[in-house]
Amino acid sequence: MSASEWEALRLSALVGLGATVLVMPPAIALGRFLAVTSFRGKAAIETALLLPLVLPPVVTGYALLIFFGRRGPLGPFLDAIGMPIVFTWRACVIASAVMAFPLAYRACRDAFAEVDPRLPAIARTLGATRSDAFFTVTLPLARGGVLSAMVLAFARSVGEFGATIVLAGNIEGETRTLPVAVFQEIQSRGAEGVWRLAVLCTLLAAGALIASEILARRARP
Amino acid sequence: MTSLACVARSRLSERFTLDVKFAFDFAPGRPIAALFGPSGCGKSTTLAMIAGLVTPDEARIVLDGIPLIDTAAGFYVPSESRAVGLVAQDGLLFPHLTVAGNLAYAERRTRGRAHAPRQEIVDVLALSPLLPRSTRTLSGGERQRVALARALLSGPRLLLLDEPVSALDEVSRWEALSFLERVAHRFAVPTLFVSHQRAEVARIAQQTARMDDGRIVTCGETSEILAKSDEPGSIPNLFRAVITIPGRAAIAGGATIELPSDKPFGGEVWCRLASGAIALSAIDEPETGSARNRLAGHVVTLEASGQRIRVAIDAGVTLHADVTRETARRLALRPGTPIACVFKVHSLEVLP
Q1: What is the topology classification, in CATH, of domain B2-222?
Q2: Which value does ipTM take for this structure?
Q3: What DSSP string runs through B161-203?
Q4: CB contact under 8 A, B154 and A141
Q5: So where are chain B's domains?
Q6: Among residues B12, B57, B286, B291, which one has the fewest Cβ atoms lying within 10 Å of its Cβ?
């Protein structure tokens, strides 16, 4: 493998990790909240949360570009604190996180819906505060689904292309992740490099799916 | 002496409003009170309100003079600070922890409250061999004992038992009840016991509030409340007996009865006898028929129940008998009338 291919692999792994870290707290919080509550307008909120799953990724990428761009609502502030997003590695992380969020959220929500709500309630009668009961009863009981959500989020982030190419571009060593590198190879050199990278992508994705399935299965009583 | 006063009103659905008002004083030696009523009458919701797991629309619940919730004053103690333990029908043990882990969970969260020594609780509930086990491998009765121990280790000022034995089979149920009773007396924990089973209430509660359709119908001494029932049909009498020789046992007051089995089990047993299985006869009437058990006593109360009259008799133990109006007239039954309760040996059920 060439140095640039190694670089793409390293960048993809880092982006995957970063996006997973970014995505899991809101996925867990919203998954838990929407698993146990019902209110008017809940269906609309769920639809909005799952939207990136069905929108063309380039559309999501374009929306992010408008939002984080120089003339967007956040652009001037990000420039002022010296942390521009667009066409930097941060853009890869954000684009991947946004695309991975619906998957992670849905897996978390399903995992929390499986937890008997009377168990954290009993914990409270034993003296546990609301957050104590969440971290010592609810989360451990949902751990299989939550870990599986993490793996899915990582796999989805590593494979992210459409939103990334719009928000982050294709800058070697900065934003050229594995899928972007595959795209680059297809356009420039041809079959050999594409095959190597494609196999690499497939191995990463398959490994993640298997891990996700094992974790989810282990969580079942 | 612990006291519990509960006034609560909550609209739970379009057609069901819970509206309860009751008070219990848990005097020494009388630690168990019951909420008794048919399934779906609001007993469990009432417990959840006391435990702080459900917030009622309007309520004032006071434990030992200190409010747990007073909606009028905008006062609310969160569940974790109430020191009100709850044991549910299926135990609700934490499945990701072992038995010992479940106990430790409660013990680490007592918030400085005193509780009975762990070893003593473990011994009384016979939990030592279960400690390392996964909660998934426990039987129903074992789960309830662990749940009870866990609640006790949290240092409760009040213990709520929500149909704690109704998921168990007949044998385990009476065994579990005797554990509950032993625990409440031994550790002097005021206990509010919820059940729709008359026999369970009769067996362990000293005071009872009867609920129906979201309301408290009556509240008072268990024997009176159960006797006042307007439900048709027989009710079980429950009393303790100490086996003296195989096949015979002494009951409170000194009388002896014949037991249906002459198995040489010793010690104390519980006997169950349906109110419909007791015949009354004048105290000086000679023994006739095949009924071999005869207990002398006097009438305490008479209560019309449909076509029959339910008679409470003090015969050392309190027994309820159902007789026809004709019999009541014939025997000139009045409170204080001396009377004999006659029943067949095989009407008597001996519980393990």
Answers
A1: Rossmann fold (3.40.50)
A2: 0.81
A3: EESTTTTS-HHHHHHHHHHHHHHHHHTT--EEEEES-HHHHHH
A4: no
A5: 2-222, 236-351
A6: B286
